[in-house]
Design a protein that fits this description.
Strand content: under 5%
Number of domains: 1
Distance between the termini: 175 Å
Order of helices and strands: HHH
Helix content: over 70%
Shape: rod-shaped
Radius of gyration: 68 Å
Structural class: mainly alpha
């Protein structure tokens, strides 16, 4: 910088040397420094604090947004966990209901089988009783008819009348007993 001042000083002395295009007037340097100082002071006093304030506000807004987002995310995670728990409970309840329905169905089927078995047994017993009654009626009817035929036939063979009821009953009983044992005419 000293050489710059020397050049400036040489240009002011004596013989009007042609001015160098690089020559700077000391007043311009001082004036430039004063203007630069004023601008620096104004920027430092008014503009920089506004930048700092805006930067701080944006930082706080971003941090607040992040905190709010984290809060919302935590709430969403809690709600998701709650919904998953409810879904699991609903699945367990549905499984329990299906199992109860299966058990009730099995109980109904068993009861219906039991009723059907009882009804079947009742029908079989009724059929057996009816068959036995019809068999007894047929046996009685056949005994009476066979007895009449046997006494008539025996009377013809023997040549005497078997009209006596007691004698006729004994002959019929003996004849039927021989038929049942399979030894006719064993007398």
């Amino acid at each position: 910088m000293n050489s710059l001042f020397l050049l400036l000083a040489e240009g002011d002395e004596g013989g009007h040397a042609p001015e160098s295009p690089l020559a700077v007037e000391p007043v311009e340097i001082i004036l430039s420094l004063v203007v630069f100082g004023i601008l620096f002071f104004l920027i430092w006093k008014y503009v920089a604090p506004n930048f700092e304030k805006t930067f701080t506000e944006r930082t706080q807004a971003i941090e607040g947004g992040l905190a709010a987002a984290e809060t919302k995310q935590a709430e969403a995670d809690a709600k998701l966990a709650e919904l998953e728990a409810q879904l699991a409970d609903a699945r367990h309840e549905a499984a329990r209901i299906r199992e109860e329905a299966r058990e009730q169905g099995a109980a109904i089927v068993a009861e219906m089988r039991e009723q059907a078995q009882a009804e079947s047994s009742r029908i079989v017993e009724h059929g057996k009783a009816q068959i036995e009654a019809e068999r007894q009626q047929a046996v009685t009817s056949l005994r009476a008819e066979v007895g009449t035929l046997a006494t008539t036939l025996a009377g013809r063979i023997v040549g005497e009348s078997l009209d006596d009821d007691a004698r006729q009953g004994r002959v019929v009983e003996r004849f039927l007993a021989e038929l049942e044992t399979g030894t006719p005419g064993a007398n």
